[in-house]
Amino acid sequence: MNKPKVAFICVHNSCRSQMAEALGKKFGGDVFESYSAGTETKPQINQDAVRLMKERYAIDMEATQHSKLLTDLPPIDIVIKMGCNVVCPYLPSRHVEDWGLEDPSGKSDTEFMAIIDQIEVNVKKLAELIKNDQLNLF
């Protein structure tokens, strides 16, 4: 069976969704394919996110990821909205969740790490739901 494709989306695809894509690959790569995108792009991934993900997980997001538009994605099975505080982008899928995460951009490392911790917990939970076929995707 093909692994479901998960898209982590937000407006700029430069911080939370990028971290979620990276953590999805790390903690859910055996269960789902991990993507991220937004309705707008930024020239680079948030540098605090890049630094903290390198420090904590030894993941270099800049080596394998870049800011992408929703139109750059393949057909998606699961959409995870990061919590846009505006109207979140729409992307057709079989399952949608909104994680309602605050944008840590410009905040302290402690606040950033709290969001990273929550993304890790959510990604692991999502992987378990998929593994146990609890989302009725197919």
From TrEMBL:
CDD domains to which the protein is assigned, alphabetical: LMWP_ArsC
Presence of the UniProt keyword Cell inner membrane in the record: no
Keywords annotated in UniProt: Arsenical resistance
Segments forming domain Phosphotyrosine protein phosphatase I: 4-129
Protein name (Swiss-Prot/TrEMBL): Arsenate reductase ArsC
ATP-binding in keyword set: no
Pfam families found in the cross-reference section: LMWPc (PF01451)
